[in-house]
Amino acid sequence: IPVDPFDLVIFGGTGDLARRKILPGLFRRFCGGQMPPEARIIGAARSDMDDAGFRQMVAESIHEFGDKRHPHEDQLPAFLERVSYETVDATGDGGWTALKARLRPGTVRAFYFSVGPSLFGDLAERLRGFGLADDDSRVVVEKPFGHDLKSARALNATLARHFSEQQIYRIDHYLGKETVQNLMAVRFGNMLFEPLWNAQYVDHIQITVAETVGVGGRGGYYDKSGAMRDMVQNHLMQLLCLIAMEPPARFEPDSVRDEKLKVIRALDPVDWHHIVRGQYAPDGDTPGYRHDVEDPRSRTESFVALKCHVSNWRWAGTPFYLRTGKKLRARTSEIAVVFKDAPHSIFGADAGRHRNVLSIRLQPNEGITLGVTIKEPGPGGMRLVDVPLDMTFADALGPDVEDVPDAYERLIMDVIRGNQTLFMRGDEVEAAWAWTDPIIEGWIARNEVPKPYDVGSSGPDDSLMLMHKDGRKWREIR
Ligand code: BG6
């Protein structure tokens, strides 16, 4: 379904995120017929460039980062006609009047701040001051949304001086992933799971976001953040919220966000014995983390594993184990809901111990699998085996799964539609920092050095111990 015609201004239009995600994503939506012909995309940045130069950059980005299987070359010229560029000085007056002249009255207006947070205030002030934004305009902001509670509050206050909460779209691209939304469909669209979705039946929950990439060219940013700020405070906590939250009354922005906020507020402070920090070590000729960030003494973590508790009626006593890291064995993001043992085994000890596990795979091979126990086929007597009830989207949906929009595409279209359901509210972001700040402060106070781990492993051994101590086991990263 096409969205309304829009003018989308991308500040930082020549930057990495725009080239990798935003522009190729918009092109996919254009090819998918969702971006109407009247839509306009205006890149804005400090670089001196004209429309032709920007179009060339956009075309190159699409070639490099776009959909290789469906390149849609024939549609590229028509898309580029809708793209233009304005040189704008975020901290001065240059270019703002010209940018304003490119915007059309009566069209949905969205301003994407694909720039560092230190510029949010300057941009917001000038958008209002030069009359580019009005009370219907939308602003889209990216993480990092602050680096602690204090800075996040300051950013929220800065934005709130110029825009209402209904106009602010804080992106956490994990919320735009197909399976993440499917998680809500599975939980709240079926009778089967919700009655079991509590401490009485769930033994524990594991959330793993494992990456094979290192810090790449982002060492400068990453070394000041680490895995806790870069991944746990946002992506992993959002996944935890969706798993743990109560059913919202409606699939509407504030219904959903109110429930997520309650989960964050119900999180107990994490006991420092229940957190493992890691840093990938050098291995022969392969450089380690410290080399990648060019700081031989860096104590920033590229891996975190932790155990936490949501202290409320539903989850009392059920631990949530979270882990994420770079340069691990495989790229896998998975949420696993591990159910308790059946109360009594009528088949005797020899039949083996089996547990139902609902696995929600975000990537790769997006899909949902339920491990169920059946009798091992054949004459061997009553032996039990686990088999998966598998709903891999590519199998279930056939070739159409190729057309499923990726996270950024979907979220940008939601901005144009004015739907905030999959965006973080200011109070949620603040509550998440309020939970992670003491963890980070504790590391600093205890002068903690992250544990080294091998590139291509599952993280430091201590993270395995975190589970073993509780008589549990991480699922394999593969
Ligand atoms: C980003 C982090 O938010 O998410 C990166 O800053 C990380 O460090 C990325 O690599 C992971 O996203 P995805 O979609 O590839 O799992």
TrEMBL record:
It catalyses: D-glucose 6-phosphate + NADP(+) = 6-phospho-D-glucono-1,5-lactone + NADPH + H(+). Transmembrane segments: none annotated. NADP(+) binds at residues 12-19, 46, 143. Pathway: Carbohydrate degradation; pentose phosphate pathway; D-ribulose 5-phosphate from D-glucose 6-phosphate (oxidative stage): step 1/3. Substrate binds at residues 173, 177, 211, 230, 326. The keyword Manganese does not apply. Its EC number is 1.1.1.49. It comes from Thetidibacter halocola. GO terms for cellular component: cytosol. Catalyzes the oxidation of glucose 6-phosphate to 6-phosphogluconolactone. Residues 184-475 form the Glucose-6-phosphate dehydrogenase C-terminal domain. Residues 9-182 form the Glucose-6-phosphate dehydrogenase NAD-binding domain. Belongs to the glucose-6-phosphate dehydrogenase family. Pfam families: G6PD_C (PF02781), G6PD_N (PF00479). The gene is zwf. GO terms for biological process: glucose metabolic process; pentose-phosphate shunt, oxidative branch. The keyword Oxidoreductase applies. This is Glucose-6-phosphate 1-dehydrogenase. The active site is at 235 (proton acceptor). PROSITE patterns: G6P_DEHYDROGENASE. One of its GO terms (molecular function) is glucose-6-phosphate dehydrogenase activity.
